[in-house]
Amino acid sequence: MPDRFDLPAGFRWGAATAAYQIEGAVNEDGRGPSVWDTFAARPGAVRDGHTGAVACDHYHRYPEDIALMKGLGLDGYRFSVAWSRVQPTGAGAVNAAGLAFYDRLVDALLEAGITPLPTLFHWDLPQGLEDHGGWLNRDTAYRFAEYAGIVADRLGDRVPAWITLNEPFVHTVFGYALGTHAPGRTLMFEALPAAHHQLLAHGLAATVLHDRGLEAMLSNNLTPVEPATPSPADLAAAEAYDALHNRLFTDPVLLGRYPDLTALGVPDDIFGAVHPGDLDLIHTPGLDGLGLNFYNPTRVAAPTEPGLPFDLVDIPDVPHTAFGWPVVPDALRQLLLNLRESYGKALPPLTITENGCSVEESATPDQPRIDFMSAHLDALAQATAEGIDIRGYYTWSLLDNFEWAEGYHQRFGLVHVDFATQRRTPKASYAWYRDLIAAHRDCHS
């Protein structure tokens, strides 16, 4: 059985973060408000009223955080650019101070021997665009392409590869369908135009990046979907959920078409959002790599109440993270095999752009996180042995941070952050990951 040391010699080891979750400095140097600033200020929206106003203060402490990355021996660092730090309203004038921050960050990473992997959108849409409809407004896709060009023109001489969007599924469902994330809309399936406009934005931005000789990737949260039982009703429910969670966001990019969404009650034109030529704009640029954010598989049953075509049910008899997510490492291997079966030669090289778990602070010495990472890396090695092209692994996350609607209650970091003092303390998983990276390099030297 292959283990994590059998990953290929050129395998890229990394860690990931996101702007609103770590940067803080929300009112500094010309940054405009984002939907998460607005949402977090809404009473009851975020647990205990937490906000990202300070977060990890990475905006000021990034040299310390890069030193932690260098101490790990990372090859790459995935971060996101805050759109409203670059364009305060999401359009128009560029904020020079905001771009200068990312300039400094990229230079410091390269000086430390770490390759930057920026994500252009990680859920923090400028509030100025949300005021005009946000991702429900088709024009937002074109504003995103302009923003992509601005950032690429400034950093592209040093940054070869880019991720356009992070988890459009999660942003659409939690932000526009269920309202548990910013911007807090509760449109159910009528939120799906936001999904289409994000994919259109990806296609337009990928063209912008390719025109500049840069590589374009897309990262989504993907999950293998299993029926609760072999019954026809549960099988149909699982197929419907797979179409919504996975294929809605991969079929258009890789195959140039949407999956059949009729089981969800969604018309082919996604409530009028799909215009002639849109799928060409989404599909034609092509992907230089597909980023996978993987946390857990999903078990689905036939609905017990009207209104949805499926019920999500727990997976029993497996460990669960502090967030309550089931831990099934081999599901990652199965997901990768499923992607190859579904897309064949259309599937580009893969990178795990997020994988990690929330662990209670009392879990000493951080063994659940070490076990989680170890088992998932073994699953990756098994998939590699079965012929899957996997280029790298970015653990989530480098730092404990603002975990969206959970505020500061879920800790995913390799490094503990005391949010009162901003003191960083590497956990046992930090040392384990550092030693693993060094041992892997020794094996291939």
UniProtKB/TrEMBL annotation:
One of its GO terms (molecular function) is beta-glucosidase activity. GO terms for cellular component: cytosol. It catalyses: Hydrolysis of terminal, non-reducing beta-D-glucosyl residues with release of beta-D-glucose. The keyword Hydrolase applies. The active site is at 167 (proton donor), 354 (nucleophile). PROSITE patterns: GLYCOSYL_HYDROL_F1_2. Its EC number is 3.2.1.21. It is an enzyme of class 3 (hydrolase). Pfam families: Glyco_hydro_1 (PF00232). Substrate binds at residues 21, 122, 166, 295, 396, 403-404. It comes from the Bacteria. Keywords: Carbohydrate metabolism, Cellulose degradation, Glycosidase, Hydrolase, Polysaccharide degradation. GO terms for biological process: cellulose catabolic process. Belongs to the glycosyl hydrolase 1 family. NCBIfam families: BGL. This is Beta-glucosidase. It comes from Kitasatospora xanthocidica.
